[in-house]
Every structure is written in C-alpha cells, then in structure tokens.
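User: two proteins, same treatment. go.

Assistant:
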Amino acid sequence: MKVFYTYLSEAECKNMKKPELKRFQSRAGYALTDYIAKNFYGVQNTDLIIRNNKPEFQNSSLCFNISHSNNLVAVAFDKYPLGLDIELIKPRDLRQLSARYSITFNNDEEFYEFWTNLEAEIKIQAEVKHRYTKKLTPDYMMTLLSANEVFFDRIPTVKIPLPRLELQEV
C-alpha cells in the first residue's frame, strides 16, 4: 500500500471558481492515477469502469482511491479495497461542529481526523480492517482505510512532481 501525492499550481487553482476547480482536481486525480499505475505498478491498460459509483481498472485487480483538497491531489494503491481522504486543515467553528456531530473537538486537527475518517469510510465500500490517520503535510490531514487485515503502523507516502499531463476534459 502506498500513497502518492502532488501539488497543483496554486496560482492556477486560485483563479478558478469552485465548479471549475473541482473538475480540474478530478481530471488531475485521474491523470495522476493513470501515470502512477503505468509507471510504478506496470498496469498497461488503465481503462476504467464504474462499479457501485466507484472507479476501478477494467483489466487489473489493483485497487486505488483518489482524494483532492485545495491544490493537493493524492491517490492510494493497494491490492485490497481502500478509502482515502485528504483535507486542508483550516480554522473551523469547533463549537458548532461539536454540537452537530455530538463530539467534542478541542482543535481543528481533531475535527479533521474525524472528518477524513468519515469521508474515507464512505469511499472504501468494504469492511474496514485497518485505519491510518496522520498529517500528510503540515497543512493536510489524511485518513487511509483498508480492507487488508494486516496491521500497518506506517504508510509510505511519495511526493512526486506532477508530470506534464494532459488534463483536457473528456
């Protein structure tokens, strides 16, 4: 299991309206997935199908999950189903969020640990056998859930420069 991440141009993202930014992040996520699958895992055919509202490789059993927040895009790969969520840590109204979720959040990091776990649970679509939550970078919280029963206390994360990718809309 490994998580790869890259940064999109802050200047480019800053000038986009939210719907345009979401499309750009999504295209970048799929482009990064395609690049990593081919160059790190040897997946020749990266054609995707959608099963249960979740993308997967049509001709490979390699599992992946994409997440993006602000200008960071990440993708996790494993041979077992997984769920990944990343979030930019920013100030929140903790009193209001604590009341909404009936949980006391003492700081923003506690809230984002909770939130990334919640989002990753939605994405895994399998029984969760293991949880891994940590700060991916000083500004981003990450949760990775796995259907693998093997305990892991450290997940390799790899920051790579975003290769010159075609991010044209299909």
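Protein 2:
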Amino acid sequence: MSTARHATGPALRVPTAVAARRADGDPALRAVGRTVHQPGALDRLQHRVREANDRLAAQGADAGEVLSWASAEVPRFAATSSFGVDSAVLLHLLSIHAPATPVIFLDTGLHFDETLAYRDHLADLFDLDVVTVTPSLTVADQRRLFASRLSSTDPGTCCMLRKDLPLTAALAAVDGWASGVRRDQTATRAALPLVGTAVKGGRTLVKVSPLAGWTDDRVADHRRRHDLPPHPLEARGYRSIGCWPCTRPTAPDEGARAGRWAEAERDECGIHVDEDGRIVRDAAAVVR
C-alpha cells in the first residue's frame, strides 16, 4: 500500500525510517548550514560531491545507478515531483532503485484536478511515500493580502510564496534530494551535473539529477517500454504542466515549456534555482 501523507504547512515530517538513517551513509554528504561548527565541512561536502559526479559520469552510470548511489550515501535523502507529464519516469525508477525515498509534492492550491488525481494514481501504482506540502497562505488569503491574483500580476512572487518557500522549509529535514530536471529542458539547465549542490534556506544540500542527460526521445521510449500511464492532460496538448493559471496547451511546433508562464518572461518557477541565482552549483565538468 502506498502512503500519502499531507502536511498542513511547509514543514516536512520525514518518515521514521529515513530519519533513523541520519547516522548512516557518508557523513561528508550531510547538509552544511551557515552556522555549522565543523571546520572544513563545506569543503568536504563539495569535494565528495565532485568526486561522486566525476565517477558516476565516467562510469556512464544510468539513472537507476545514480539513485541507488544517492539513496545509500546521502544520509537523509528525498525526491521531489510535480507529477507532470514526464514525472512517471523518475518515480518509476525511484520505486525500483530507492523505494524507501519520500517524495515531496508541493500542493500550491492551484494545480489542475487532473494533476492531483495523477499524483494519487502514481502513488498507488509505484507504492510511493508521497508527502504533500502546502504553503502557509491559502490561495484566498494570498489574494486578500495582495489585493490581486498574483499569478497574473506578479507570477514571480506567486511562485515564491506557493513553491519556493514551502520547498525550502521541507528540505530543512533532509540532506539531499533528487528531481527530474534535464539539460535539454531550458538553456539555464544545459550544464546540469548528475550530482551537484544547491543552497536552500542557508544550507548547502546535495542535488541529484538522475535524468540530467536524458532527451525527450529517451523519456518517451522509457514511458513506452514500461507502459507508464500518461498524465490525463497530455492528450489535450499539455506537454509541461504546472499551476493552472500559468499553464496552457502548446502547438506541435512549440517547445514543451512554451505553455508555462506564456504571458511572462519566465522559464523557471524558482525551485530549481540556487539562492545565488544559479540552477545548481558546479560539481564538475558535465559529462554527457
């Protein structure tokens, strides 16, 4: 049976099995905060991450091997998922190679009903431990506070309140996490390593991107070979899905992410952007 737990605020309650692993794995891969009292801890973390990225890339490690490494070596490890069009690929691999990993889902209050249904379907299908995290402000409270629909007037602030801040709070409970981002999705992701670091809430964490080098064709092939269920909106022309106010279907000659924030000059919501504005801190030379 899958476990679907719902946090009423942005704090993530890490499963007991994961919390108990804090002393396991590689101590050098524990997240490092600004006030850490262990001299050299950040240098050790960054060195270990570079070493791991170089080795995995040189070995031609597949996504499953990257997830197995992360699950074994990162003391408190989680994954994030938007339960979008291609999300089933990472979740399928996670269920095989790191099945005890909690999956963080940010319920912004503005998702399509179809996305929430898809989340529940994949959680059952892959027996996932999904932790649904919500913002501190309801959508109605946010509209009253700002006297406008921020998704239209200020999408950057809307994303910060409904995605960035809740994720940062949730990640305070872990030392590293995996996501399904890929180099070919946006220009800003082109140099994405398999294993890098990211700063969230003043802490430097391990950021794992098992699908970094995958292409649209490879994703489609994996979905086809493993008969993974499609997102219900895909058949209606939605190829990249976020919150409903900022998502539209795309034409065949458009890029998949052209339907995201179509009325604003954005291609990232911010959750994959480091606190210094970078997608991920360099771990090593990217090996494709």
